[in-house]
Amino acid sequence: MANNHENAVVGKRQILREIKQGNIVEIRIAADAETQYITELIETAKNNGVSYRICSTMSQIAADYGIEVPSGAIGVLKA
Prior knowledge:
Radius of gyration: 11 Å
């Protein structure tokens, strides 16, 4: 998947909302995010049949998606 910020949502609240609406195909979670943050996203993903992967760092996710501040996760939206 391409790293397109227009096809992704940033932050736990937005990701959780979009999962509940059935709009997320994958969550990319930073390995250096807080444990509770990671756990909540993984549990929600599993409960809703959404794939997820642990990747890089918060700073790298921000760089990959053109976000100005480090981000713990990105939710990739359905095309």
